[in-house]
Amino acid sequence: MAEIILHPAGGGRYSAIWSGAVIATASAAITAGARALLELGVPPDEELIARHKGSDIIAMRGTVGGFAKLTVKETPNGPRLVPWTPSDRNGDSDRPDRPTAAEEAEGRPADHPHPADRLEETIP
């Protein structure tokens, strides 16, 4: 089982913390975190739970692969989980550290590191 801790990052965004490292920061941190976990080699059928910093209550539960296919969209009736696509970059639904296709073609820029490159970054 994988566990993500959601830390407030300001501006309606959260950092997804896994094994003490920031793996994603976005308004939809659980789904962005799930995509980062897939990139780090966590199996898609692995159970994923999310808790908010300082809480023992499970906020969300599913599989890494299931959450990776989704993002959160604000609607007049509140937030809703909707299908995610790699081109879905509005409202930071995609991980902000994920380069565009053009950036990938030119090589990953230093300000868009792979999540594994930042596993040393920790949150107290």
Report on the structure:
With about 120 residues, the protein is of the alpha+beta class. It has one domain (about 1-120). It is built from three helices and seven strands, in the order βββαββαββα. The protein has helices spanning about 30-40, 65-70, 100-105; strands at about 1-10, 15-20, 20-25, 45-50, 60-65, 70-75, 80-85. The strands form two sheets. The protein has a five-stranded mixed beta sheet with strand order 3-2-1-4-5. It has a two-stranded antiparallel sheet with strand order 6-7. It is globular and about 35 Å long. The relative contact order is 0.20. Residues about 90-105 and about 110 have low confidence and may be disordered.
Which percent bin holds the helix content?
10-25%
| CA-based gyration radius | 14 Å
Return the domain count.
1
Oligomer: single chain
Instruction: Work out the strand percent.
Output: 35-45%
**Structural class category:** alpha+beta
Low-confidence stretches: 90-106, 108-112
- What is the residue-averaged pLDDT? 79
Shape: globular
What summary fits the major beta sheet? Answer: 5 strands, mixed
Any key phrases for this structure?
single chain, 124 residues, alpha+beta, 5-stranded mixed sheet, two-stranded antiparallel ribbon, 3 helices, 18% helix, 36% strand, globular
